[in-house]
Amino acid sequence: MTHRQKQWLVRILLGGIVGIAVLIPVGGVFNDLVAGGLLAMSIRTPFRLVSYDLERLAGPAALAVQLGLYFLMGAVVGVSTLPFADDGVALARRSLAHFAVTAGALTLMVCLCGWNWGELAPLLVYLALLAGVYLLIWLMRWAVWLAEAAAIRAKLGLPRRKGKRGGP
């Protein structure tokens, strides 16, 4: 196993474990909201699968499926902490692929757990929030990269970059 593969495996495992730890209470809140709203919230429904009549599964099966979904979401987030590529085109392509996988995992979790109440509009809201988070993270990374490049140029004594039309 290469060093890069080990990094991926560690991030997947750690991310999955953190995903389970974080999403158990959050999922319980969402499950309670689906079950009856804010007044029905309690700790009695931490694991409940709604779609496809999966809620009729025995408790251990629902628990296993929902924990698997939580692990998947955590693993996807854990992988996002690794650098995807060194050049711009590969970075953009891999980032878009990661976004698609994350959106797929989120869609699977939201639909199987019934957090969209069986409708499309709530799912679209979840996906829009995910896209907003991705955009915010990329804007923050871009600002940091620009600041780092400016600091490197200043340390090397190079003139400030004026843009593509303004020269070097």
Overview of the structural elements:
This protein has 168 residues and is mostly helical. The chain is built from four helices and no strands. Helix 1 (3-36) crosses helix 2 (59-79), helix 2 (59-79) runs antiparallel to helix 3 (88-113) and helix 3 runs antiparallel to helix 4. The longest helix has 37 residues, at 120-156. It is elongated. The model is unreliable at 39-46 (pLDDT under 50).
Helix content: over 70%
Helix vs. strand class:
mainly alpha
- Extract low-pLDDT stretches: 39-46
Radius of gyration: 21 Å
Major beta sheet summary: none
Key traits:
single chain; 168 residues; mainly alpha; 4 helices
Provide a brief overview of the structure.
With 168 residues, the chain is mostly helical. It is built from 4 helices and no strands. The protein is elongated, with a radius of gyration of 21 Å.
Task: Give the SSE map.
Elements: H1 3-36, H2 59-79, H3 88-113, H4 120-156
